[in-house]
Amino acid sequence: MSAVPAVGRRSGARVLTLQRRRYLIAFLFVLPALVNFAIFRYIPIVMAARASLYDYSLLGGFGDFVGLKNYLRAFDDDLFWTSLKVSVEFVLMKVPAQIVFSLLLALFVSRELRGMGFVRTVIFIPVVTSIVAAAVLWGMMYNKDQGLIQSLLGIFGVPHTAFISNPTLALPAIVVMMVWKEVGFSTIIFVAGLKNIPQMFYEAAAIDGAGRVRQFFAITLPLLRPVTLFVVVTQTISAFQVFVPVYVMTQGGPAFATNALVYYIYQNGFQYNDMGFATAMSFVGLVILVLMSIGQFRLLRGDVEY
Amino acid sequence: MSTSPRLSRAVEPVLRYFLYAFLSVVFLLPFVWMVLGSVREESEIHGLMFPFTLHTIWPVNWTLKSYLDIYGISAEGQAGGLMFQVGLRNSAIIAVAVVSCSLVFNTMAAYFFARLPFPGKKYLFAYVVATFLLPFEVTVVPLYLVVNQLDLQNTLWALIVPFYSSPFIVFMLTQFLGGIPKELDEAATVDGANYWQILWRVIFPNALPALTTAALIEFQFIWNLFYWPLIAVSKLDLQVIQVMIASQTTDRQIYWGRTFAGLVSAVVPVVVLFLFCQRFYFRGAVLSGMK
Known about the structure:
Strand content of chain A: under 5%
CATH class of the largest domain in chain A: Mainly Alpha
Oligomer: heterodimer
Strand order of the largest sheet of chain A: 1-2
CATH architecture of the domain at 86-241 and 278-290 in chain B: Orthogonal Bundle
Radius of gyration of chain B: 24 Å
């Protein structure tokens, strides 16, 4: 890269054009990707910021300038606050449950024993399955009158229980389904993390007389910190945006118990045609998530040990 | 280990196989119920549900009726306006288009970032990586505004064009291409090859494992996509399979056999690919964990 300018000034003009030409050709390789990210990643944010300040409709485009009215409306809207609360509750239930289960599963399946490959395959099948398919299937399993779960619980004498039509159980029921679907993914990441821990640490600890439990808390857990943080960050961001299971299984109900933020945005934008309001709320959600990821990336960066 | 080694050695395999069985039931039973439910009579699914016996899951009379219905082959299916074959076709068109575009444009961009000279390249890379901060679901409404302005809504283009390049895949491939020995490019340059020829004749064959991983990740992403096609396309004959299975259950929940058959149709392509190319999927998961 730096070899060309060293040629000197005499043939400077020619070299410069030659080099410019090379830069130009190089740039053509990346141009399609850059254009895509501009149009479909960055410009939507700019448009949303603008649309949220107008009376925006899909057919009429930009109407009257209304300033912060859409934002004030959101902050004044009880259901908007409910939706934020539901999304946060979902994160607080799902992320810790998934971390604990995937860590336990990883400790189990990372051992190279006969049959472990099969288990890894089995727990990963829900991961490749679409969320819609998983949600439809679990919606049927939870069904109060005909669900498979009711039939299985019947073996233990448990009477029919309303899960997704019960305000207290609906959100936990979605959490269970989503943990089932995604636990395999974080498990595989933890398995990779576990394999990166040098074996000699365990050997040294064993010589010092530390048992397995002690080894786990003194070696495994601290050394898995970066991987764990990464999983927490990515899972928090995706869980906060939960939409599909709500759309498929509960439509935000019962009694708004599962009225998550993205679902509420969808309803306002596409069912009530209230695009200005929907973009204002999208923007609030976006700001929350960007701040959250910046904060968490900071946390991650100061964290490479070994 | 610290207690009694001999006892734990005897108990361990038993415990382990018990855990294998337990995990298999938890993760596979829903799928088994779905597959077997799609090949039995509708009345059986409901009639044999309680109390739980083998036949709650295992069919008594096997039939492909549900599939004939959802693919509009049987008279009842046609009367119900069911046409899952159209959903499968749309999903397949989109998947092939997006995966091919992605292989071309993402590989080119990654080649640029990993190998080509350009002033201020790191700022351009930051521009790519910064998109990781933009969450997808929350920005779907804004994306719709742009696609609406481009007048692409309600066309298959709306499901293809936004995804012809992916920041995550560019990032992943850049890491990988950086690891291919530079001597290969230099030798090709001496032989008079230009950037374009080097990319496709030298880099591409050497990057096949990474490109396979990228293609599989992209296929799974686009095949399983739901929220975006749900709002970007409202015409029935442009619907993708994932949207069809959802509208089936919310509208006509009474036919569980049909729903099962629809689910099987939507799930089988990705699961079969996964079963045959597992190591690429695990590598993909780990790579995404490294970003």
